[in-house]
Amino acid sequence: MNAARLISFYLPVALMAVSLLAAIGIGALFFLKRSGEMRANRLYGGLLIAGGLTQLHFLLLFSGLTDRHPALEFLPIYFTLWLPVLLFFHVKLSLYPHYRLRWTDLKHFIFPLAQLLFFVSLWVVPSFRRPEGRYFYSPFYGGLEQALYLIIWPAYIIFAYQYLRRKRAQLRRRSLPRLLWYLRKLLKGSMLFVIAYAILAVSDFISYNYLFVDLRNREWYAGVQSLSYTVLLLWLTTYGFQVLLWGRRLLRAESFD
């Protein structure tokens, strides 16, 4: 087996497969979790499952299965615009367990729901599909969607961090409560990996539009880009595994409200 092929193709495929299975498995267990805020648990479970299914989409593309079976590209399993919103509400409800969702909160789900309906319509009605698959001006699957992804992720992490800072100020405690400490680590790690993904995406955009080099056709770049999302998903999954394993002891629901 060629060493370069092993590193650039088989290793990313293996890591992507492991990350998606782990995310979906851990995410499902969150729906059975009894400690902590129930809605926050389900939101995080939904986040991991949505992240795992999105990884399956990337794996189908990266492995070339969509070249042989083009319809697989339009499976309604692409949830990039859901992930930051689900993370934000998980943090918010973890900090404020007595918060009741309002009609005004629905505005956060406009783009995620529209993205889901977009893919469902493409799957059910094949004539809606574009031959090139992704296209630049699509807000749900294309260049504009990637721009939204790179804007929404940091924005929602910052929004969640503001709630965390507000909660800490309200508690007026010198030491940081365990839950806040772990949520802060979750947000900081997520921001770091999102920034790494953004650097790759911006590099691809500049190379394609100004240097006339399509990095997506370079096997090494495709592998690195796939791993950037994989690392983010593994981070979210590892955090979820810690919560499930040591949740009662380390992330017990403290009396916040």
Please tell me about this protein's structure:
The chain is an all-alpha fold and 257 residues long. It has a single domain (3-247), classed as Up-down Bundle (Rhopdopsin 7-helix transmembrane proteins). It has helices spanning 3-30, 38-63, 65-68, 83-95, 110-124, 143-171, 178-209, 219-250. Helix 1 packs antiparallel against helix 2, helix 1 (3-30) packs parallel to helix 8 (219-250) and helix 7 runs antiparallel to helix 8. The model has no long low-confidence stretch (mean pLDDT 85). Keywords: Membrane, Transmembrane, Transmembrane helix.
What is the percent of helical residues?
55-70%
What is the CA-based Rg, rounded? 19 Å
Quaternary form: single chain
Output the structural class: mainly alpha
The H-level CATH homologous superfamily, spelled out, is Rhodopsin 7-helix transmembrane proteins
Distance between the termini: 59 Å
Q: Could you say what the CATH architecture is?
A: Up-down Bundle
| Strand content range | under 5%
* Average predicted local confidence, pLDDT: 85
Helical run tally: 8
Name of the CATH class: Mainly Alpha
Shape: globular
Number of strands: 0
Please outline the major beta sheet. none
Q: Provide the low-confidence segments as ranges.
A: none
- Write down the CATH topology: Rhopdopsin 7-helix transmembrane proteins
The tally of domains stands at: 1
What is the N-to-C succession of helices and strands?
A: HHHHHHHH
